[in-house]
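quick one, 155 residues, struct below
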Amino acid sequence: MPTIGTKIHESETLIAESGLTGERERMQLATWFFSAVAKVFPVFPEYFDAATGLSAFCNGLTTLATQITLRRAANEGIPQEHAIGIASQCIRGVASLMLSATSPQELEGQLSAPGSITGQAISRMRKRQLSDTLGPALSMAITRARDYESRPTFP
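---
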């Protein structure tokens, strides 16, 4: 299932890959089809639901975090149009670096020079134990994705 990014050809589509005999041609066809609107990720069944939950969680996290950020930016007098542009470009830049093989840990290190503004922001989020909120939310998304598997299928 492609994600909302399909509207601008920036979606990710997860395709279950079982490795069964004769499946190669179906996988190639599905990959070709969805590549028109998305980046395709062949995913093995043992972690397909977890990957689906991860995808849903990341879309929700980005959307909600940006909304919170934009509200605070507005309170500081930044016009919404500017705040959206700045926030979106920051997210895009970090995402592009990760896609080019820079790990999140490397990025954090590069952004966290002693006394830096970004380093202070990261430190504050760590002190507030953001992981205590994000971890359970991701687990819930994965659990929900697994619940879909138990639904009856229709021919």
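The first strand starts at residue 11 and ends at 16.
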